User: Fold these one by one.
Assistant:
Number 1:
Amino acid sequence: MKKKVLVARPTFPDVIERLKQHFDVDVNLGDVLPQEEFARRLADRDGAFTAGEWVGEKELAGAPNLKVVANMAVGYNNFDMQAFDAHGVLGTNTPDVLNETTADFGWALMMAAARRVTESEHYLRAGKWQKWSFDSFLGADVYGSTLGVIGMGRIGQALARRAKGFNMRVMYHNRSRVAPDIEAELNAEYASKEDLLRRADHVVLVVPYSKASHHTIGAAELALMKPTATLTNIARGGIVDDAALIVALRENRIAAAGIDVFEGEPNFNPDFLVLDNVVLTPHIASATLGTRRAMANLATDNLIAALGEGPRAGNPPNPINPDVLKK
């Protein structure tokens, strides 16, 4: 008898076909499942393919056969890992395959904020552009400025590599310093968070979300930044105190922001919408066809291997809590 798998969100048809070669697959082809419906459909499954669904104690306790949940994302703040360990369920994620695409988007968002792209486009579309003037939409230079990266993991390093072509000074803050050879390669200076915020012209956030990183940037941190600086968040909602950021933007305490992730998304603070000096995107930093396909296939590789199928049977490539495998 085939093991049973839930695919909680629509994905590429060929990915579903790969799973059907090994498993009895229940696919949600509609909108995001309400949490109770997700839990109900998970109850008799051996594995699940998720893309942001909350999986915690209640869901795991109600799914006694569950062995693995494969998240189509690098971040896994939608998993209660303490509950996963307690129930002996493996969690997996999809690192590396989205590093470069996400770094590209971080740069796009940062530059759009710095050069007031969204604001000036809205002005043009509204029919307000009647003449050229020397002081129209004056923004901030990127070339030759100082980039501050908070979170120097794989994506943070990819961001820093791009700074070389813009002749930028690079500062970074991380839980721990990266290896000296990486610092040398990136020409990156380690700094405290406070020092980075005071000195950087463009701050980009690339830290994973956890209780410890909640509101890494709040009112106190924003007060340290230059009034000419920009802030870009491509990490996770909750890393920034959105309400505090809105106040800082409204009062021009910082020049601009580029925000791809929000607290409580897909809901977000509507006060963002009345601000001209913020670029808003709906969590699309990894949204290229090639990257999303690579993420879906890697999540599938994890699911197949964790359930004892395929060439890597029993050895999934990206376990989050590998001690479960030993048990």
Number 2:
Amino acid sequence: MQRLITFSLLAALSGTLHAAPRLASPEALGRTLFFDSSLSLNRTQSCSTCHDPAKGFTDPRDNGVQGALSLGDDGHSLGDRNAPSAAYARFSPPFGKDAEGEWHGGQFHDGRAADLAAQAGGPPLNPIEMGMPDKATLVARLRDNPLYAEAFPVYFGAGVLDDPERGYAAMTQAIAAFEQTDEFAPFDSKYDRHLRGEYQLTEQEELGMTLFFSDQFTNCALCHQLERTPAAPGETFSNYRYFNIGVPVNRAARLANGLGEGHVDQGLLDNPAIDDPAQAGKFKVPTLRNVAVTGPYMHNGVFQDLRTVILFYNKYNSKSAKRQIDPETGTRWAAPEVAQNLALTELEHGPALDDKRIDALVAFLKTLTDARYEGLLQ
């Protein structure tokens, strides 16, 4: 409500607020933009194509790579990273260093976008995503749409769509306003309902929750717990820091996108703001909200099953030969894509887990699914 008042006041002061527009708020404008395929060159993709509200705001398409990568508007280009969920993204702090001097926050897997608006401005101009040639072309399309021609001046000032820079920035701000609504962060999972006394966890879920938050039995909460603040009233299950956990190359994806095995994803070091080799291979800790319905997993979609992810972490602490086998390949876990800078202090914390405890953690992680997606759980 405060954002709406601010936008409307600015418009009134600039003399552009006349009749109420059909898109009744900046959030409503942003919602329409989020689903508008005209923001892509061939008019085949919108933000929602790779961040589908029906699939936890991730990309539900197979794209020939079991969903690991997203297909571009040109119908053949594939990226190199799995589309992160846009759900709960508003709680990631602006990219920078936290109180302890560690890099945290931002958007995308490497934090290269400082905030939601900066993130919204990336895909439309990316040649292998939505493929628009420049800001002027996109803003011209906005100007040709009567709904946008009516709404943008109201919320962002007269002549905003006559200036490509202003118009493009306004578009990103409107999309960001929509992404800050409760549609993206309802906090209504079984876990949330349990905290409110509205749902009784099963014995297995209860065990999983105990294990998850115990620094004696697992290392989960070392990275996937955030103290609640006024800005994040519910647990978002990420500290938004960056770690190299030793994720292997997704060879099938690299073969499909043409980058080949010689390419190395440097993670945080690929962020233009970072030039420290000690950041190579580090990726932002994702939220675990809706994790059970938003596979495949890791920044490159290399793992299909949530249980595999827990087994991957468990391999660092288990001496069992069985635990050194990737259940999805039937062979030993592949080597890290970036072998230096591994977060061994965090990864080797805690004892090895038996099947009962691994299954309990999976059961708990399923309770982090928003109510609207519970029908997607297997």
Number 3:
Amino acid sequence: MKPKIFVTDATFPEIIDYLSQSLEVEHNQSDQPYSEIELINKLHDKAGVFAHSTRRFSAELFAACHQLRAVCNMAVGYNNIDVEAASAAGVMVTNTPDVLNETTADFGWALMMAAARRVTESEHFLRAGRWTRWRFDDFLGVDVHGSTLGIIGMGRIGQAIARRAAGFNMSVVYHNRSRLTPALETAANHARYLSLEECLRTADHIILALPYSAQSHHLIGKAQLAMMKPTATLVNIARGGIVDDAALITALESGTIAAAGIDVFENEPSFNPAFLSLSNVVLTPHIGSASTSTRLAMAYCAADNLIAAMTGKRPPNLLNPEYL
């Protein structure tokens, strides 16, 4: 008998077919929202879950789902899962690293350049029919080429962002929990390690690419934003909650920093509506990895993790090896 698994949200049809070759699949291709109680009811007889990062897996859920052996997240981040509780319940947890590094790095650059050059603001101006003549001072932004890029979080995505800076003749500074090896710093466009405060004060453009944790919650708040240059931009492609969104809105309103590009929000998909009144922020709905090829690769990666877990193998991207 095939192990029973549940796919929490709509995904590519070929992924359902792929999983069905090895597993008994119940899916949610209608994309129905579930409360935690409803999700627990769905999982009461399931051994595994193919999960999206929007679904939360709490200690209460793990305590209630006694047959569950694996939760395989289709994301790099896994702050939606209580990994400690999963381990205590004997449940494997996996993610999908590496496959989205380059696409997410591309998008970080897209947001940075759009914020620096006021692309969203100027497009709205044009679409509203307000462009009636050329002016020398229309939508003056800040340069990207020849400036200093600051990266906070120098993992695989951060390093991919840094490599792109070479083409813009940029200097790269970074802050990370631990310093990279000299070889990795050289490969990342000769990136220079700084403290968080030095990085914020030095950079013309800051991109956040670090994981969310209790330690990184509101890492960028009022005090940190005040350290940045008034001409600087801030881009968040990491996770909501790393930036204090209310403090960022105040900083953008007051001119503490010039502009921002935000792909992730506190409490998303809800977000602070005050963002919508700002002209100097580019807003996108958590689409950093949203290319067809990358999202499909992420889905296959999550599926391979789940198939391995359900067939007695070690999943390639196991986050809690202490389970074994």
Number 4:
Amino acid sequence: MIQDEGTKEVVGGASRAFVARAAGAALSFGVGVAVGRALGPDGAGTYFLAVTFATIGSTFGRLGLDQMLCKRTAACLAHQDFAGVQGTWRRGVALSATASAAVSALLFLAAPAIADALGKANVAPAIQRVALAVVPVSLFMLFSELLRGLKRSGASQLVQFAAPPGLTLCFFGALGPLLGWTPETGVTAYFCGAACAAAFGAFVWKSATPWLAGVKGKARTREIARSALPFLGVATLGMFFPWVSVLTLGYFGTEDDVGLFSVAYRTAALTSFVLTAVNAIAGPRFAALYARGERAELLRSARQATLLITVCALPILVVLWVIPGTVMSLFGPRFVEGSRCLTILATGQFVNVVTGSVGQLLLMSGHERPMRAGLAGGAVATLVLHLVLVPRYGVEGAALASAIALAGTNVALLLLVRRYL
């Protein structure tokens, strides 16, 4: 029986988040299986390459506001500052929507040039279609983080991780027979799923905050933008690791290579859904404890979260190590050649799991700058590793570079936690 109240909150909140995140992981896996079986490695590579650009565009369009909104909402609630919550979410969402629209237009116009630079002119139509998804992706991410700041961890995970792939899968199944099974159809389904998820996120946020009705917001756009900038650096560097793998394979390899790696990467990342589920409740708790100066309780909660993550994720990792070929065959017979790639990536995820919520600890305790420095070092290392290994070893080189970079960066962040906390 759990006696500690802080641990009860983390375990109880994580259990709700776990259910939603597990559903999201299963649905995301289902999207990969559907895309892989319908399009093959070549078409799946075009789809995942296009979706990567939507993710990149959304990261810049959010301006780092997602993590900042979560932290600020949790801190405002800890001090019963409802006007701060109202002003923060309204100005934050408006600012990000405007920036994301600008990024979307830029990506649409630059799609032919991007495709030519990669030496794959045929992916331009898919990139142009996926540019339309930048705004809705940014919005459902923002509403998810706002809900996380309210400690509505289950709802947060549902909006960010379960709704988008679930809706994408539905639209892909509906549009395929009408438009044909092509990468462009997949990207269209992705956009429709993201748009519906954004609308769902807004509805859930409004339903969760009836107490904000009539409250006059208290926040300045300039202050919010300035507070978010350190988080933008962290978000950009954090997302650099999967980007560089897909983009270097897109440049040095073929669409088949991109498809094999993307499927293996997303499958290996199934282990991290436990980490994400625990972070959903642990992050706001870390922010509140740090704001109140309860350092000992903060570190005790972090240790409990790490133990929970490791125990839950280890069985999945064992499966990926023992029968990678069987797992990859679910996507189609041609994907079995990515089995070794999956094993390598799963090993990198093992280190990601056992180091625990180091990123959340640094972000929620005001140590964005040292975290950004640690991620910058990891980004430089992963770029060098990819440039050396991908031209020589292809997909397996990308997997090895990605695994080494992920493991090394998480160990570096763990050392930063020990130093600052």
